[in-house]
Amino acid sequence: xxxxxxxxxxxxxxxxxxxxxxxxxxxxxxxxxxxxxxxxxxxxxxxxxxxxxxxxxxxxxxxxxxxxxxxxxxxxxxxxxxxxxxxxxxxxxxxxxxxxxxxxxxxxxxxxxxxxxxxxxxxxxxxxxxxxxxxxxxxxxxxxxxxxxxxxxxxxxxxxxxxxxxxxxxxxxxxxxxxxxxxxxxxxxxxxxxxxxxxxxxxxxxxxxxxxxxxxxxxxxxxxxxxxxxxxxxxxxxxxxxxxxxxxxxxxxxxxxxxxxxxxxxxxxxxxxxxxxxxxxxxxxxxxxxxxxxxxxxxxxxxxxxxxxxxxxxxxxxxxxxxxxxxxxxxxxxxxxxxxxxxxxxxxxxxxxxxxxxxxxxxxxxxxxxxxxxxxxxxxxxxxxxxxxxxxxxxxxxxxxxxxxxxxxxxxxxxxxxxxxxxxxxx
Amino acid sequence: xxxxxxxxxxxxxxxxxxxxxxxxxxxxxxxxxxxxxxxxxxxxxxxxxxxxxxxxxxxxxxxxxxxxxxxxxxxxxxxxxxxxxxxxxxxxxxxxxxxxxxxxxxxxxxxxxxxxxxxxxxxxxxxxxxxxxxxxxxxxxxxxxxxxxxxxxxxxxxxxxxxxxxxxxxxxxxxxxxxxxxxxxxxxxxxxxxxxxxxxxxxxxxxxxxxxxxxxxxxxxxxxxxxxxxxxxxxxxxxxxxxxxxxxxxxxxxxxxxxxxxxxxxxxxxxxxxxxxxxxxxxxxxxxxxxxxxxxxxxxxxxxxxxxxxxxxxxxxxxxxxxxxxxxxxxxxxxxxxxxxxxxxxxxxxxxxxxxxxxxxxxxxxxxxxxxxxxxxxxxxxxxxxxxxxxxxxxxxxxxxxxxxxxxxxxxxxxxxxxxxxxxxxxxxxxxxxxxxxxxxxxxxxxxx
Lengths: 427, 449
Fold this sequence. Notes:
The structure holds two protein chains of two kinds.
Chain A: E1 10-14, E2 20-25, E3 31-38, H1 52-59, H2 71-78, E4 82-87, E5 92-99, H3 103-115, H4 121-140, H5 147-155, H6 170-175, H7 178-188, E6 194-200, H8 204-215, E7 245-249, E8 255-262, H9 269-281, H10 287-295, E9 299-306, E10 314-322, H11 328-345, H12 349-368, H13 370-383, H14 389-398, H15 402-412, E11 419-425
Parallel strand pairs in A: 2-6, 7-11
Antiparallel strand pairs in A: 1-2, 3-5, 3-6, 4-5, 8-10, 8-11, 9-10
Helix pairs in contact in A: 1-4, 3-8, 9-12, 9-15, 10-11, 11-15, 12-14
Chain B: E1 20-23, E2 29-34, E3 40-48, H1 61-68, H2 80-87, E4 91-96, E5 100-108, H3 112-124, H4 130-148, H5 151-163, H6 185-195, E6 202-207, H7 214-221, E7 245-249, E8 255-263, H8 272-284, H9 289-297, E9 304-307, E10 316-324, H10 328-339, H11 348-365, H12 369-381, H13 388-397, H14 401-411, E11 418-423, H15 425-434, E12 439-443
Helix pairs in contact in B: 1-6, 3-7, 8-11, 8-13, 8-14
């Protein structure tokens, strides 16, 4: 039997202007993946500009000194490549997969928009409308679309950076101006606030020579110093012992949601907690699915996830959909008693082995895809300055014991410290 | 210092990942596709189970059969089989097309030998316990409630109903609220024993298998026996659509969800490569006419797209977007104008960009087992060879602008198109009438779901 291993060779360097570069040479790669993480997300938005980081991500496709509006995407697509960008709480990422012959062009496109932003009032007005349509399509026009917004506003105090979601507010987007875009750009979009990852068959030397050609002369930005964020001691809204929140909307079934604060994704404790969540609800035979969906049939589905946030804290959300006629209080009690049982007795070795086997399969597939591997490298280089974590994580996880997992569950998922939200249908 | 725009170097010719084809004595074909460096394998078992073979009062039985199969087997009942599979870090999944059940397994190559016999049991000896069947029926009914609240699903349901008229394909693949309650565990047993079969089925394995998996596959599936599958009912694709615009009333909607569709062609049609190029340029890519106008110029939508969903026996052409209610009629009118390319044929530059987009994407899209596996499974379902992609891309490379325009105009015919809008009818109907549309307003309950 072959052993599964994760051993991607990474070459790391930093240019004089502060751009950190990680190169993964992959002789089998059919193309080149370029991935840039800018260390800025919705958590950096001041009140009055909620949603701006994401709107700005759209502006980055609207032109730079040598690239016309939309030319970036059009050019990449007409070469058969693809590119996109996403904005989350902690970061904004930009990425492209290109044919080998377009490697230089890809670097040049990213460098040109890191060095200059040439947007007009018309571009801004149009993209504002596009983003508002995005919010309508993904959040307002589908059942439960606003669930995360509702949850985060209950978990965090309004002054906390995670109180508001990246999609932001329509009013703030209406107030966005060209000047704000230029200011935001000058603050955050410099080489010293970015990590560039390249996965390709080219050697580290070849890649570095090209990166220096295109990025070497870009001046650093005036990156603001962030205030430190400690792990908030408790949920700012009501916890379970203080009562249950209910909202009522036009949705087909009631969703029971239990939320806890959890350690940031950079904290070693988050690994054991994540395996704990897998034991709880990772696969068909995991505890919550088996008990709630198959045996008692109180729920038609159940999920348990950690949002993998990085700044001082993260959040665990367990959600279950009530079957017809099931009292959400009964369902939430059942979920909590399952979690308590697991925290009190600890998982069996069989359960841990199963969760680890499933983790291993996911992880190998995830890193096997070159675009997601590039993103993981940028992620850890940004969050912990250790991109090699992509190689180290599996060893750490595979050595977890039932005791480690029990400890993390009892530390972080105490029944009394969760916030409870019933998202109810209006029937 | 300004660095000038670098030139793009020509790419080496690319071919779809190589495969080998094997046939077991029971008729099961095995397609092996080695992908070096990919430690997690993707297995797809494509079994021809035409939906038209379901009894009409038991629609959904094919779906339940595929989804309940991994709950228990004769050897390992009551959830035990799922535990055994998960012990190997492996996942079972299933999907349906109009002509096939496709079950799948995701598993690290190092654990294939131990996971394959478990997968084999799920396929050949599921026990379909009554409690599991009843549980899945209830979950399916709750999913139907979700579908009724989802604008995208409502639009797709309305379009199918209009296009496929009374054939099985006009109704949801996964069964309806009238049919699901009638299905019994014994119906799954019957469907499984008559429809799941190695004959004319294909098992696809993609990834970096460290040893030849064929002996193990033979050991697990070699003794499996089954009937010759039924041929699917023919589909009448020459349907005149009336009325032309269906407005599904969803009073709570804040957007109008648009889906325009007509019958197209399947992959065997000589127009297929040219149609794909034309659709890419008109609405398939980000830089297509549709998206650049509706999103980047007007700001009417988060995105607009055009695609060519295709099956073994038919193809369709579909256009989709979502607009804020206030400007929806104007945006829908504009969409129709953009689609009428006979008024402004695609120019050679647009056609070249679209061709390069399709050709260049080949090597980038097909380098991981999941994408290779699902693409090849679709070929197997359509009775096409695993290297169909190479022939198709060669043909794309030869498409001229004239051919692209001709294919589009032959296939995407305004008089054959059905427009579905899901949204607030009270606000949308007057707008649409003002622009000359004659909407037929229906309620969600009028859709067969």
